[in-house]
Amino acid sequence: MDLVTQQGLSPYSAPLWWRLIATALSFALFGIGGVLLRVLVFPVLGLLPGDAATQRYRARGVISWVFRAFVQFMFRSGVLTYEVEGADRLGRPGQLVLANHPSLIDVVVLIAFIRDANCVVKQSLWDNPCMRGPIRAAQYISNSGSMDMLDEAAGALHAGQTLVIFPEGTRTTPGQPPEFHRGAAAIALRGARIVTPVAISVTPTTLTKAEPWYRIPSRRFHIRLRVGEDIDPQLFSAQGAAPIASRKLNEFLHRHFIKELAVDERFTAGNQTPDH
Fold first, then answer.
1. Is the dihedral of CA 133, 136, 140, 145 positive or negative?
2. Structural domain boundaries enclosing 94
3. Is residue 111 situated within a structural domain?
4. What are the tens digits of pLDDT across the range 134-184?
């Protein structure tokens, strides 16, 4: 199993005032970067030879590279440390990657480690001036909640794409267990060759739902991604009609994440120091 880790390797322990500045700079860079990709980078990529699939592959590769560079900037500036366990098992054909969603930054870290990922994103982001360029160039799927969305997601998996979904649909409320919508399970049963859960923990909690970016924690935060064992969706398809199979798979996933996140909490409690 591949282990990518940057825990404890930050060049210095940044004081609170500096991390506030670095966090503000990170948000500014993210927004400016999205605009530059839309205005400068993707139009140039569009001039290169290749069919629609090739253009999409290039766009997703650029996004993954930019996200990796962004995470490295936040790491080098002392805002965060990160750890990704099992990164080598991400990005396989027809793979549905399901993850919990504790923080705004977890999406960036996850896609940074998948070279060619499709993703179901919130409808509101399609009109965001900083995000709409990358989203449309990468041909991500809008989370409209319609049957067309389910068909489009299943079709992407049938075509051999890797698809990332956050089944909660929004960030987890701190202190509460994740609540999964059944749509992700329905997509898995319709088109996934394998389902791979990714348990994400952020310690201390930050960038949570309804939390402003400037409310930074007392120490730099550590984000940990653990890629779980593959799940065969056909095992659930054989248990009954589609609604029953979807419910059973959703319940299985919910239990899995509750268990894995409890492991992360014990791991954090046993390894906690004043700063990572």
1. positive
2. 3-271
3. yes
4. 999 999 999 876 788 999 999 999 999 999 999 988 888 877 888 888 899
